Amino acid sequence: MAGRVGAFHRKHGQNILLSEDDTVAQRVESYNKAVVFSEQPIPIGSMFQVKLQDKGGGWAGSIRLGFTLLCPDDSPVPSGALDLYKSDDYWILSASTVHHGGQERRVDFNLESVNVGQSVACCISKDGELHYYIDGQDQGAGWTGVPMDRPLWGFADIYGLAKKIKSEFVYGELCCHSNSKNIFTGALVIADELMSCGEDSDADVTG
After folding, report:
1. Is the alpha carbon torsion for 182, 171, 138, 155 positive or negative?
2. What is the pLDDT of residues 25-42, one digit of tens each?
3. What is the rounded distance in angstroms from the CA atom of residue 72 to the CA atom of residue 150?
4. Burial of 74 (C-beta count, 10 Å sphere; 0-12/13-18/19+)
5. Is residue 139 within a helix (H) or strand (E), and if so which, with residue range?
6. What's the confidence (pLDDT) of residue 4?
7. If we measure between CA atoms, which residue out of 96, 182, 171 comes closest to residue 132?
8. Which residues are CB-contacts of 65 (< 8 A; sequence separation ≥ 6)?
9. Vertex 54, ends 52 and 55: CA angle to 5°?
10. pTM: predicted TM-score of the whole model, two decimal places
11. Residue burial 120-148, b: 16+ Cβ < 10 Å; e: rest
């Protein structure tokens, strides 16, 4: 699937409207219940990247971004990232804090400062480090020890001020870190049986 722009999963939060072949996700009501997932797992070394297309409305907070070990087909749709900070199955950056399993780690930038037109991304390195990017610039490792023997789906919560995002992740396209020693020279391939789960469905499934 190298070279194909990734779509969002058809299972998503109840306030999400997908368009443009499921590559654009917009929250159409309220401030929450607007989570989306990548349609397929993101291979190790590839970015899960989205562009913020609309922002406003007077709410607090903004987009939250990360990865999950849970297949969207087989899991209930969460109301939002706040419910997942203690989960061992999610790594989520909210503002300037990465949450996983009830633990927190601070980073040196803030997702709430991302403006319309800017891109944000996350990537798991071949060493199991979770890196975040703004406009393609590596912001450093937000977490270490992420398991690489299970598939990881991209996760975004279009929360608060964030209203609309567009997919910019390309399956098989590698990310690289600002430290040249960490530049990837080859993709790690996820076995076919790890690239999907559950049964395919043509119907939207929301939660």
Report:
1. negative
2. 999 999 999 999 999 999
3. 14
4. exposed
5. strand 137-143
6. 62
7. 96
8. 48, 50, 92, 93, 111, 120, 121, 122, 132, 154, 155, 156, 157
9. 100
10. 0.85
11. bbbbbbeeebbbbbbeeebbebbbeebeb
